[in-house]
């Protein structure tokens, strides 16, 4: 399951027509660009029920069994959303929160659920924390990350 909070950078573009999937599909491009078959592979996996896309707003009440949940851009989650996603986990499931808390947007600068989770959950035998201290995207990306 791919999970992203539909938060963008820059000016909001306003109301979008369409279904939930049509309104949120662009937020999942960072996941899909890393699949060998891109959009076609994502579509095939979704048709077989192997791959799911979700946003936190629609996760309340879900129980997620036998699933690896990949939550990208977790720096744009507050403590309530981290808790919401984590408490959906059922049998044989795990969640990976991935994000750079230095890139948090707006209200998440001062209420960063990712940082809180790292602090509160470290040392728990069910939790592992990996902190990468280097930008691996490109040399140019490193230059802009330091602005």
UniProtKB/TrEMBL annotation:
Q: Has keyword ATP-binding?
A: yes
- Cellular component terms per the entry's GO annotation: cytosol
Domain PhoH-like protein residues, every copy: 2-140
Q: Which organism is it from?
A: Paenibacillus pini JCM 16418
- GO molecular function, one example? ATP binding
Q: What is this protein called?
A: PhoH family protein
What Pfam families does this protein's entry cite? PhoH
InterPro entries, from UniProt?
P-loop_NTPase, PhoH, PhoH2-like
Gene3D superfamilies according to UniProt: P-loop containing nucleotide triphosphate hydrolases (3.40.50.300)
User: Which keywords are on file for this protein?
Assistant: ATP-binding, Nucleotide-binding
Quick check: keyword S-adenosyl-L-methionine in the entry?
Answer: no
Q: Which domain of life is it from?
A: Bacteria
